[in-house]
Amino acid sequence: MDGGNEVGEVKVSRLQVEEEDETPIEHRGSALCDALHFSVHDKENSPMMRAVLCSQVCKVYRFETEDQRRLLVREQMSETPLSFSLPKQLLSALIQEHASRVQQVKELSDLSPHWDSLRHDVVSYCNHLIGCYQETLTELENLSTSPCFKSSGRKSDRHLQFVPTNLHSQRMEVTAPGSSGVWYQVITFGAPADHHQAFKHGGLKRLLSKHQRQSSVSYSLEESYRARELLVSVAQLPPLIFGQAEELLSVSAERNPARLQEVLDGLMQETKLFIHALNDELVRSALTAFHSQCASVSGRHGSGLLCENASANQEEAREYDEEEWDRTWANVAKSLDCIMAMADRLQEREHLLRERSSPDPQESTADTKSQNAGSSSSSSSSWQEQLLPLVVTLRDCVREAVSKARAAMTFVVLQGALTATVAQGPERIVQRRHAVFSQALSAVVCGFMLKVYGGLEDPEFLQQLHSVGILAQFEALLSTYGEEEGMLEDMEVSVADLSRELKDGSLIRVESVLFNIGINQHQSLAERFGDSSLQERVNQQSGERLRAYCHSLRDKLPHTAGVQSLSDLLSALDRSLEVKKRKNVEVLWIAGTMCHKVNGIRLTSCKSAKDRTAMSVTLEQCLILREQHTLSQKHFSMALDCMRRDGCRMENVQKNIGSRKFAFSSVQLLTFPKLYRPPDGTYG
């Protein structure tokens, strides 16, 4: 570099704006470092930042702007403890989840042979995953030190498959004379992929399409939880109803209206609780689905779910209609009404008898006592006789409702367990999916924590999180040829799995998008002789999701900074996606710009986040300096070469492979887009 740009290296994390001084240019880099050592920013060294970032490497530059001012640029690359701590937390959660699922299906009643076989499949499946995950967690816990970094050379290690490869936070602070610093950040990590299982049969997208079972019936975690609640209710409430019914028959002999009314009130309360619990749309829909599935397996395995009513279910499978459940719980209510009406009539009759048998002066006392005794015995016997058939009917109706509800909710729990386990495909595919999700999640959480911490005092950003969630924009530089096509298929599924709501208190939605443009020599082969449809599909689908997110942001928060410029960027992105142009990296630039505009999380990946990622990150930083901070055009290429030759990404290469050389050959670089080529002497 010429005298217009200097670079220095420091190990601290604060930048202080320098006044113009007379220090000779050749000593100015070390002067910057000395100044930085004595000016540590409180926020940068807060406990939260230390929890997210570690092992920081810093490079400091001065670059000239169009108006001959000097930009002070600080480039910081940091490892993160989340590389290992978050996968360990996820493994623990998965172990607990599958252990809980085993317990849930084991607690189900005795099942008929066909359904018991399915339960056995779920238990075996979960136990296999628990064993594998426990072994992996133990290996991670037994690491001798507290690591923050998994090098590219260990991406195939079996026990490190949940750990992201080469995960770093890359941050840049830009300070112009007379102004405060502005931060930009991108998370870099190796594409979330299962290198241990490798890619002989493709990646997750292809494997899932081959092995994942499509079920006509599936239930969410919330529905399974609701089903377990209902199973508890149908286990607890009937004994209370039956107890109250027995007591009703017992007190009917006492001819005590107050006591009788007390028991009736208790019976009515317990029965109404039972009816309220069963009058649930989940029970109704599950019964319909259950009987439909019973019909499909009858004749082969027997359609009954529970052993106690297997034969009845086989008949119901052919005759069941959707209104039958409504009639079932309505019969319980009608039975209760009949008991209440009979009790009222009996008490009214008793009241009339008492009035008629009141003492009459003209009648003898002996005759009166004789009549009263006869009527009392007759009345007691009459009450029990008339209430007994109604109580029996109530019991029968409750038992029928319990039988149907237990079958329906057992079906929901078992079907939910099957959907979450066996239906996902062989255990190795589920392990692969969990592993690549762990890698992607670790990177997103790192970026999310930094983004939230930096925006805690920004009410617009906090409102954006609450209203529309946060955008996670993944940039990939993988080819669609050979093994890297499988890596992209893994990455596609892992990014899609991230589009969920982060819970624990309030909800924050993560809208994840993935844009991929292969830039190396293998992509040239794919475009000429192979197939790049995977890349086209991924980019097109992500473009649609990005558009939907931007429209939601514009509709709900129209006055948020940067929102008004999104329409032009969306149009430019659409045009770039439609253009049939080889290695159209403009797609990545536009998507990255939009991510910065909406305060999203930027993530960049290639195979190992080492060489191609270095080219992308340094280019993005220089484009930001040029577009946002008027970096001189004549110094643009020099700044780019400076960052690639002496910046943080070269340090990343050295820590991964022990050499300060990018893994490119001069022949390979001929196929790269021009701006993605490193300076001479830095590759080979």
From TrEMBL:
Region described as Disordered: spans on this chain: 353-381
Lineage: superkingdom: Eukaryota
Biased composition (Polar residues): 359-374
Gene Ontology cellular component terms for the protein in this record: cytoplasm
Keywords assigned: Hydrolase, Lipid metabolism
UniProt keyword Hydrolase, yes or no: yes
InterPro entries, alphabetized: INPP4 (IPR039034)
Hydrolase as UniProt keyword: yes
MF GO annotations: phosphatidylinositol-3,4-bisphosphate 4-phosphatase activity
Protein known as: Inositol polyphosphate-4-phosphatase, type II
Species whose genome carries this gene: Nothobranchius furzeri (Turquoise killifish)
UniProt gene name: Nfu_g_1_019167
